[in-house]
Amino acid sequence: MLISLTVRNLAVVEDLALTFEPGMTSLTGETGAGKSMLVDALSLVLGDRADSNMIRHGAERAEIEADFNLDNNTTLAKWLQENELDEDEQCHLRRTISRDGRSKGYINGRAVPLALLKEVSERSIDIHGQHAHQSLIRPQTQREILDIVADNKALLNNLKTAYRDWSASQQELELLQSQAEEQKAKQELLQYQVSELESFQLTETHIQDLLQQQSQLANASQLISVAEAGLHRIFDEEQAAAYDIINHTLSELEKLQDLEPRFASAVETLNAAIINLDETANDLRHYLDHIDLDPARLNAIEDELSQLHDIARKHHVEVEQLPALYEELSTELERLSNSEVHLAELQKALSNKEANCLALSREIHEKRVKTAKPLAKQISASIKQLAIPSGEIDIEVVANSDEKFSEHGMDSVRILVRTNPGQPSGELAKVASGGELARISLAIQVVTAGKRTVPTLIFDEVDVGIGGSVAEVVGQHLRKLATTQQVICITHLPQVAAQAHHQLQVNKKHLDDSTHIVVDKLDRQQRIEEIARMLGGVNLTQKTRSHAEEMLDQAQQ
Fold first, then answer.
1. What DSSP state is assigned to residue 3?
2. Which residues, listed in sequence order, are joined to residue 510 by a DSSP beta bridge?
3. Cα-flanking dihedrals φ and ψ of residue 44, to 5°?
4. Is residue 421 classed as helix, strand or coil in its secondary structure?
5. CB atoms within 10 A of CB 415
6. What are the residues whose beta carbons fall under 8 Å from the beta carbon of 349, sequence distance 6 or more?
7. Structure letter (DSSP) for residue 233
8. Which DSSP helix (H) or strand (E) runs through 469?
9. Per residue, what are the HEC states of 10-78?
10. Strand 24-28 versus strand 486-490 pairing type
11. What share of the chain is helix, strand, coil (3-state, %, to 5)?
């Protein structure tokens, strides 16, 4: 429930503080006194778009504050707690608008984005403006009215989430399908490239061995010649073989090492040299025994390397990089092969998501159909009381023949009206006059208001164009609503104002070359005077006052 509203430096409002009570409160005053300015202020503190031109002349900043009681609003209390904005069981909103165009919002003293103020609005107040009937001709508004009464909010939220998930999967599937032909061609190319490389033993070790063997076989003659010459110099050369020279020197030193002990080191070194020469000679003999001039093997290796070089040039890499390339192409081929599996899985998931959306849409459809006739009957009864005696309302709910759905379901919802006997029902915009449309809108607002979960309803001159006994009925409807919800009504009709439990009078005063708005809470006698003014204008008579008093007494019974 709205407890208080404070407005500073907004338009003609300099400093205004209002308190509100449960039940029905009427705001009255002369035309242009600033009654709707209070609704504007409340809309701003609840996140509506602001303009620096709204700031009072001479001020640098406008400021609006509002307090809400959470006792009977568990929805808002839970939301505040979930967003870590709760504090001492209260909801205090503050909005500032600066001359430089900056705007700030606060909830319980914490700075928040303006979008969060709007979320508080959705959980606290419904504001019905004086031109609300103009939106009634839109199919979207008609559908929303039916969904409010059918209590479809939770289902629609679930459908909205499911629909967006389905839509995202649908877009992903369409993208994959559009790429399928291109991917198929790429997959075929990769398959050819991988198969071509698979015919070779593509490991780093194998390629290094090929390169080494090719080098050895290509230079085999030179290698044999060098090995034979070395073996000859070590052992076979007459009188100049290294083995013989060292062995002869070793023998002479051994004979004399008893005379010269210092020869012992040289003897040891030469013995090691003899052993090393012997091992070297054995190595060369073994090499010569096994090396072979094999032109056929050389041709085979060079042929394989030639093919590998051709493939490497084709892929713009070196031969040594072919193993890494093979791994890369194989991985990409596997990924593309798996994309077909992914596509099948996505199609299956999409089918399940579509089934979920359809199930939710059907459930919403059933609730709409079930609600449509009783609601139409209620609205029809209400508009008869509002000076459309022959008025009949029908609510048409038609499901799409192909069960095509959106985030709003799969239905076309239309509110149809018949204002004269014998005429067929037709669309509101084509059948109802402007005045009739306003009364139908008011009837719908009254009938559906009790179905809304917010604790506060504000009606801003929604009774324009209505008078006499119809106005009294409107007032009675609003007063009845006030038994379950707080109702604040801005009105020019004495019949409506008299029905209120509380009455605030708005006046515009000119002081010191500036304009101010003053709001007074009226006691019983002041209410009689104000209602008399609304009945009789400027020159009030005792008869007018008596009429006003009688009207007030009857309304309060």
1. E
2. 515
3. -65, -45
4. coil
5. 25
6. 169
7. I
8. helix 468-481
9. ECCEEEEEEECCCCEEEEECCCCCCHHHHHHHHHHHCCCCCCHHHECCCCCEEEEEEEEECCCCHHHHH
10. parallel
11. 60, 20, 25
Q: Check: CB of residue 25 under 8 Å from CB of residue 488.
A: yes
Contact by Cβ (8 Å): 41, 10: yes
Q: Per residue of the chain (557 residues), what is the pLDDT tens digit?
A: 999 999 999 988 888 999 999 999 999 988 777 888 888 899 999 998 888 888 988 889 999 999 999 888 888 999 999 999 988 778 999 999 999 888 999 999 999 999 999 999 888 888 877 666 667 788 888 999 999 999 999 999 999 999 999 999 988 887 777 665 666 667 677 777 777 777 676 666 777 776 766 666 655 556 666 766 777 778 767 667 787 788 888 888 888 887 888 888 888 888 888 888 888 888 877 766 766 656 666 566 667 667 777 777 877 878 777 778 778 878 777 776 666 677 788 889 899 999 999 999 999 999 999 999 999 999 999 888 877 888 899 999 999 888 899 999 999 999 999 988 878 888 888 888 777 787 788 788 778 876 777 888 888 877 776 777 788 888 888 888 888 889 999 998 999 999 999 999 998 887 767 777 889 999 999 999 999 998 876 678 888 899 999 999 988 87
Instruction: Using CB atoms within 10 Å of the CB of residue 66, give its burial: 0 to 12 exposed, 13 to 18 middle, 19+ buried.
Output: buried
- Contact between 41 and 5 (Cβ < 8 Å): yes
Q: Compute the half-sphere exposure of residue 170: CA atoms within 13 Å on the CB side of its CA.
A: 11
Neighbours of 202 (CB within 10 A): 17
Q: Which of 402, 427, 404, 429 minimizes the C-alpha distance to 417?
A: 427
Q: Using alpha carbons, list the distances in angstroms from residue 275 to 281, 392, 405.
A: 10, 124, 95
Amino acid identity of residue 249, one-letter, is: T
Contact 145, 151 (CB under 8 A): no
Q: Are 241 and 281 in contact (CB under 8 A)?
A: no
Kindly report each contact of residues 346-351 with a partner whose C-beta sits within 8 Å and lies 24 or more positions away, as own/partner. 346/169, 346/172, 346/173, 346/176, 347/173, 349/169, 350/166, 350/169, 350/170, 350/173
229: which 2 tokens?
């010459």
Other C-beta atoms within 10 Å of 264: how many?
13
Whole-Å CA distances, 490 to 316, 461, 480:
81, 5, 17
Model pTM?
A: 0.64
